[in-house]
Amino acid sequence: MTTEPTSPPAATTRRSEWEKLAVALLGLAVWISFRTERRILHDTRTVTVITNVKTEAERAQARRHRDVRDDIAEIYGVAVGSPLDVVPPTSRSRASWIAPVEDPNRRLLPLRHLDRFKRPLSVRLTGHGTALGVAATGLAALAIGRRRRLRSQRRAALAVAAPDVRPSRSD
User: Fold this and answer.
1) Is pTM, for the whole model, over 0.70?
2) Sequence-distant (≥ 6) Cβ neighbours of residue 157 within 8 angstroms
3) DSSP 8-state symbol, 64
4) Contact 80, 57 (CB under 8 A)
5) How far apart are CA 12 and CA 149, in angstroms?
6) Minimal CA–CA distance to 151: which of 51, 25, 11?
7) Which of 49, 39, 18, 32 is nearest to 114 (CA)?
8) pLDDT of residue 3
9) How far apart are CA 15 and CA 31, in angstroms?
10) Tell me, what's the pLDDT at 137?
11) Are 19 and 142 in contact (CB under 8 A)?
12) In the chain, how many H helices and how many E strands?
């Protein structure tokens, strides 16, 4: 009587739950990284931070007495430092920007609102750090899934080769 070689059980050739989890986590990491870069490219704006924001009456008076060579920010308040690149936390946060009538492309940001905005580097570090953590978890899940698959294939091969011998717990 001849014995034909048997193939491993079908359960070992399919993806395990761990491997499915790993693929989902790696996909999530790519998505997080993509969204982070998209947000930085799409939402980053250069703003001039101002303090002592003036009222409408003070702005009108400053416009009348303004020299053409003066900075536009002086009409709206006192400019602090050089322009900054910031990323707003939400699209509604853009309402706190001041768009000067004299230069509609320029954005002024009152100092009291600056703490709500983030710098692009911190957004990038947070986003990619999160993506890296998710990817590492996915790779760990993949390693666990592969190890479990190899163990089950080894046990199945031992069971087929020597049906009367039980595999030991050490492997």
Assistant:
1) no
2) 8
3) H
4) no
5) 6
6) 11
7) 49
8) 55
9) 22
10) 93
11) yes
12) 5, 3
